């Protein structure tokens, strides 16, 4: 009945698989029917290592896919029905664009003859995500042109490859479909030959002319394959301190410097020996101050990475080495260069100071929470929400064990955080999400995915009933309108949310209690709430900075 | 300090107000600061009839604005901070585009020098919603060009006017903003002169040459100003049956025909006298079958409306009268034309048949729920969710009283329904939302808005734990994968959701109990759950159609 449609969609599915797609997030709908059913047949009867995830809310679906793609460093496919369903992917696609994640939206569509003519559930879906996608294509899987099969096989594989090529990014494949939509289940699967995109054996030569003094590595958020181990080893061999962004995967480490933003804010940095050169790896650092500091002191900056394009908004990079970090690190490792011991030691010593001032905090608020979380066991996956948590963890979280850390740190939204964390948690034992109450509320629908995927995920909600970050900004001065526009407490009961999703709930009322929870393995869905005060939290942060500054006579 | 910025944003705000904006939905963020604070000052100290609504989840914020704009028929403004926050408006903007609602997104942005250069929270926001907006503009409110103030005054007023001009639709105003963002609160408000877009006094002349036989009005979903009263009166004077789409606002009425889709499905229509001419008003009907029926029987179609563009996906309109419905109806009313009484009576008689077969339904499922809802008191606002509810109400809801009925019937998504209903409920006494469990889950965050806005809203959740509509589609045949891909039960506890939002909860277990609830005025947020079975519901629908057909010997 629908032999050609079936054959062509199978070509599409096998092509996705051939280029490494192993996870597809499907949102229910009617127009998706042939793709969804054949995907189900594929995972049930053809291959053992491809997985379907079902997510009713397409916004959460998008962020679930983002979380999987980001943490597994592989292309992930989303599938939604025509209309606003597909539009709900837009936030995750935008984040994928900013943070270079290979997310592929299969948007099923109404056919050409139903476009812009009053047919229901029909939007103009061509290039739906505009500048947020690396590429978009509309494929007529019901075309009768003889070349269609070969076109689908080539184009699909090419697009998946494009999505994963650095800088990785999102792709839209739009599929207009006419009724009847039912595929022929049980029809033989065609042979689809993989296209090999051969890797080139790149290397770079570095000379040491530009190494005229002390060097620091600035390890920004890592994208793509993990090179943190290599970076840490090279740094250690050459006595190079690593300004270790919380998302760089280089914490803990013998050379890792935590809290650069606080060190700059507190003035501590003025007492430290200046580097002559800073080598930047990865994405834009969480710290807003560190790039400005480089610029202010005219420290030479070498930027490493193929994803460089648009990576220095202070416009202070002197040298760009357009290669992948591992290749650069191999070359650097050949150089006969070591920082002198005093330089490295001085930077290293800051870590005791940071630890000491944090240890002085006695009220159980955001900073003591971060302190407790340094005890997370090795091999924990930790997702950190935007707004206050990512800043606090970047500054004050001196991990005791090797924890993998993730965030949506491209467009920096508070949306989709829980769903992204669910994506991170698949197939992993110990998983945590650190989040504030507003970001938690924003993506509560993601809790449904946590429940359905039967993962272990402990969500630590630091609940100050509103937007805590605004107490730190000039907006705090606008008393008359502050609570209305910025405070925005939602009065959300985390305990009742736990009830709704059959999650375990714990209210942690002391640091000690929290530490015990942090050390225990995560089991099922567990919501831990810590209730804090916005004003107290602001004051504690100020005190910490003051004490940090005083240690160096900068009070 | 920030005098110019303050002056220009005040020009923007006053211009919005001058063109009729009375509701602004603000989502908290930092980049929005000058606009949000000056809006707060404006509503607090300048005018008494402008309202700010705060919504943390921008997707829900967008649909809240859509609900207000749609039901009040006035332009509504959304305000969000840069990054994915603005992208979360995309689903509501797409629906506004499809259903012609004047929704205006103010998207604050990072300035030019931070674009595409690695600055955080910075997307390419120019023309963010692509083809979904009627127009978009980027306004540099910090420009030092002397013409800026006058430009903002003209451009803003022009854009609001454009948004409201039929066919109405969404607009994006993008506002790049540099730090410092704090406006000068208390600075004098400038004089902003309203631009008058004068109405033209249009009229049309109709002759009666084309009135060669019986006429039916097909009243589709109403857009813009309400003309249902006039339509009903003209129809009554000329003995014209009105195929009354559930969204046409013409139910109940002496001439209103309910259930055209069922009448066609059941075969009843074959016994009815054929019209010679059908005059179409409003948007695409909810009934998928009625346009196809017109085409099949080659009944002449006259389409009325300025929003015609792309309104007949069967391509069977013969005459297009590009004027507003009231003008056409005035002209039609002058014609010396009446249907003969038998014709009208035959159509009218179908209503007793529909009522009788529905009354025969004994199991308490979706159709008995619809039956109970016919008792809603006069002047109730009723929002109907997509998927099954809108179809059931279109077919079987013979309202006993004048109820205003709304839905997101453009792109027909299940997203944003609760938020849209909250928008509908503002300043209105009695408000209901009829919704299935999946659409309910999709926009649970909208319940927060219901709680915060302190409205009366009774939400009737017909809970069959999954996608009931798919049991009616060919997909039902794919047994092996059906529940995974289409059934998709979420196991949601409506009672616990009510707990979470401090809502009243009632489980209605009989039609009689539900009728009592329906007759009572809605108070606060109230969730009423009816638990139904997907398979039983499917079978009941089939039985009803069979009985309807049998009444006319079409079994």
UniProtKB/TrEMBL annotation, chains A, B:
It holds the Pfam family TPP_enzyme_C. Its cofactor is Mg(2+); Mn(2+); thiamine diphosphate. Its EC number is 2.2.1.9. Keywords: Magnesium, Manganese, Menaquinone biosynthesis, Metal-binding, Thiamine pyrophosphate, Transferase. Homodimer. Transmembrane segments: none annotated. InterPro entries: MenaQ_synth_MenD, MenD_middle, THDP-binding, Thiamin_PyroP_enz_TPP-bd_dom, TPP_enzyme_TPP-bd. This is 2-succinyl-5-enolpyruvyl-6-hydroxy-3-cyclohexene-1-carboxylate synthase. GO terms for biological process: menaquinone biosynthetic process. Catalyzes the thiamine diphosphate-dependent decarboxylation of 2-oxoglutarate and the subsequent addition of the resulting succinic semialdehyde-thiamine pyrophosphate anion to isochorismate to yield 2-succinyl-5-enolpyruvyl-6-hydroxy-3-cyclohexene-1-carboxylate (SEPHCHC). It comes from Weissella minor. It comes from the Bacteria. One of its GO terms (molecular function) is thiamine pyrophosphate binding. Residues 208-384 form the Menaquinone biosynthesis protein MenD middle domain. It is an enzyme of class 2 (transferase). Binds 1 thiamine pyrophosphate per subunit. CDD domains: TPP_PYR_MenD, TPP_SHCHC_synthase. Residues 10-126 form the Thiamine pyrophosphate enzyme N-terminal TPP-binding domain. Belongs to the TPP enzyme family. MenD subfamily. It catalyses: isochorismate + 2-oxoglutarate + H(+) = 5-enolpyruvoyl-6-hydroxy-2-succinyl-cyclohex-3-ene-1-carboxylate + CO2. Residues 397-520 form the Thiamine pyrophosphate enzyme TPP-binding domain. Pathway: Quinol/quinone metabolism; 1,4-dihydroxy-2-naphthoate biosynthesis; 1,4-dihydroxy-2-naphthoate from chorismate: step 2/7; Quinol/quinone metabolism; menaquinone biosynthesis.
């Amino acid at each position: 009945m629908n032999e050609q449609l079936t054959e062509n969609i199978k070509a599409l599915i096998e092509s996705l698989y051939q280029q490494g797609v192993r996870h597809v997030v499907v949102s229910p709908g009617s127009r998706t029917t042939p793709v969804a059913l054949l995907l189900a047949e594929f995972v049930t009867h053809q291959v053992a290592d491809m997985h379907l995830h079902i997510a009713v809310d397409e916004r959460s679906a998008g962020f679930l896919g983002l979380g999987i793609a980001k943490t597994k460093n592989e292309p992930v496919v989303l599938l939604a029905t025509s209309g606003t369903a597909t539009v709900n992917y837009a936030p995750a696609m935008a984040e994928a664009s900013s943070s270079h994640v290979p997310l592929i939206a299969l948007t099923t569509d109404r056919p050409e003859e139903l476009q812009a003519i009053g047919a229901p559930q029909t939007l103009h879906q061509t290039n739906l995500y505009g500048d947020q996608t690396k590429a978009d294509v509309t494929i007529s899987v019901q075309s009768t042109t003889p070349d269609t099969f070969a076109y689908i096989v080539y184009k699909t594989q090419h697009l998946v490859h494009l999505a994963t090529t650095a800088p990785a990014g999102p792709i839209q494949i739009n599929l207009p479909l006419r009724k009847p939509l039912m595929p022929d289940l049980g029809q033989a699967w065609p042979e689809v030959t993989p296209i090999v995109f051969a890797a080139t054996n790149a290397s770079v030569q570095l000379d040491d002319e530009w190494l005229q003094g002390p060097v620091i590595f600035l390890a920004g958020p890592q994208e793509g394959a993990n090179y943190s181990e290599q970076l840490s080893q090279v740094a250690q061999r050459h006595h190079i301190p690593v300004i270790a962004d919380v998302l760089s995967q280089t914490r803990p480490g013998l050379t890792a410097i935590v809290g650069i933003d606080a060190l700059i804010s507190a003035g501590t940095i003025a007492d430290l020996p200046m580097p002559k050169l800073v080598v930047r790896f990865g994405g834009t650092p969480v710290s807003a101050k560190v790039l400005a500091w480089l610029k202010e002191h005219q420290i030479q900056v070498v930027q490493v990475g193929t994803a460089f394009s648009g990576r220095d908004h202070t416009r202070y990079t002197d040298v760009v080495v357009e290669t992948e970090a591992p290749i650069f690190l191999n070359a650097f490792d050949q150089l006969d260069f070591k920082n002198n011991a005093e330089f490295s030691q001085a930077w290293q010593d800051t870590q005791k100071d940071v630890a000491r001032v944090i240890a002085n905090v006695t009220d159980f608020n955001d900073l003591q929470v971060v302190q407790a979380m340094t005890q997370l066991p090795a091999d924990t996956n930790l997702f950190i929400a935007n707004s206050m948590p990512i800043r606090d963890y970047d500054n004050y979280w001196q991990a005791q064990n090797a924890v993998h850390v993730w965030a949506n740190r491209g467009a920096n939204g508070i949306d989709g955080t829980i769903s992204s964390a669910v994506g991170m948690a698949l197939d992993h034992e110990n998983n945590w999400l650190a989040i504030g109450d507003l970001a938690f509320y924003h993506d509560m629908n993601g809790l449904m995915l946590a429940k359905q995927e039967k993962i272990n995920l402990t969500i630590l909600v630091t609940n100050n009933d509103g937007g805590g970050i605004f107490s730190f900004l000039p907006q705090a001065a606008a008393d008359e309108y502050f609570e209305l526009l910025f405070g925005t407490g939602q009065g959300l009961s985390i305990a009742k949310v736990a009830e709704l999703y059959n999650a375990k709930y714990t209210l942690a009322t002391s640091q000690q209690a929290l530490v015990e929870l942090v050390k225990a393995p995560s089991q099922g869905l567990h919501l831990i709430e810590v209730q804090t005060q916005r004003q107290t939290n602001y004051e504690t942060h100020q005190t910490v900075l003051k004490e940090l500054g005083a240690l160096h006579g900068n009070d």
